[in-house]
Amino acid sequence: MAAPEKPRQFLVPDKDANGCANGDPKGNPNVGPLGEPPGAPSRATQGADLGTAEKPLMVIGPVSAGKSTLLAALGLGPKEIKKTEALVYNRSLSIDTPGEMLAIPRFYNALILNSSRAYAVLMVMNGQQPIWLPSKIALALKSRVIGVVTKIDLAGPETVHKAELSLKNAGIEETFRVSPVTGQGLECLVERLGDLAWA
Question: How many angstroms separate the CA atoms of 168 and 158, rounded?
Answer without folding.
Answer: 15
